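Possible regression after last week's pipeline update?

I re-ran a chain I had predicted before the update to compare outputs. Posting the input and the new output here so someone can diff against the archived version. Not blocking, just want to make sure nothing changed silently.
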Amino acid sequence: MREYFSKRHNKAILNQALPLEFPGNLRVSILRTLEKFSDFGGWNSEENFSFENTKETLKTFYGQENLAVNIDGNERVSLSISVIILKGTGDQLIDVVEAWFQQARSKEQHECEHDLNICLKINNCPWRFVVGEALLVSSEYLTEEVAARLLRLSKYDLAYGELSEFRAALMHLQSGDTHKAVCNAHGSVIHVIKKALGLNGDYSLDEVMPKLIESGVISKYYSDFLSYFNMMVQGALLEASVTSADADDDFQEHVPRNLAELIVNLSGAINLFVIQSSLSGAGFGCPH
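New output (post-update):
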C-alpha cells in the first residue's frame, strides 16, 4: 500500500496551502472516467469491482472499519466511492483516485490517466495525475514536458531510485518547502548521472560533470549548461542560508518559489536528457 495524497501533504492541507476545490461538473467527469475504466462483474455485471477494491484499500489506509468521510462539514460513514467523488473534500477525492490507480491494470491506468488529465485541463483545474499520483501544475512545462515523461520512466524501473529524488523535489515544491525542493532537484541530477556512468559512492556535481562529458554520453558542448545549473543551485541555497541567519532563530531556510520552480524544471530537463542520451548508447546504468 502506498502513502496517498492526504498523508503526503497533511501539513499543507491543514494549513489550506493547496487549491482543493473541484466543481460539481468536474467531479461528474472524474466519476464517469473512473467508471469507464473499472472492472465490473457480479450476476448482472453491474458491480464495480474496482470501486469495491478501492474502498477496502482506503479503509486499511485510514485505519477505519467503515469508510468515514466529511461531507458539507458532517462526518458520514459507509458511503460509496461514487458519493465520495461527488461530495467529499478535495483531498478525499484525490485519495480515491490514487487508490483506484493502484489496483487498476497497466493498460487501464495509462488510458484513464490520459482521459482524466484532459478533463482536469479543460476545466482549468491545477491538478494532474502522473503515474497514478496527484501533481499540482505550477507550469504546463513542469508536468507535461518533463515530470510526466520522467515519472513514466521510473514506472518501468529505469533509475527508479534516482528519480525518486526528483519526485521528492516535485512534492516539496507543491507543498511549499522550496529549500528541500532545490536540494532534492540538485541531488537527483547527481544520482542520474552516476547511474548513467555506473558509478557508486559519494560524488559532487562538480566531480561527475567532467566524467559525464568524458564518457561521451553527452557532448562537451553542454558542459557550460551543467555548470550554470550547479552555480544556480549553490547561489540559491547560499542566499537562503544568509536570509535565515539574519532572521529569527525559528525562520526556515527558504528559496523564492519562482527560483525553486526554475531549478526543479532545469533538473527535470537535465535528468531526462541524460537518461535518453544514455539509453540511446550503451544502456542506462551500464558500468563503463
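Follow-up from reviewer: compared with the archived run. The longest strand covers residues 68-71. Marking as no regression found.
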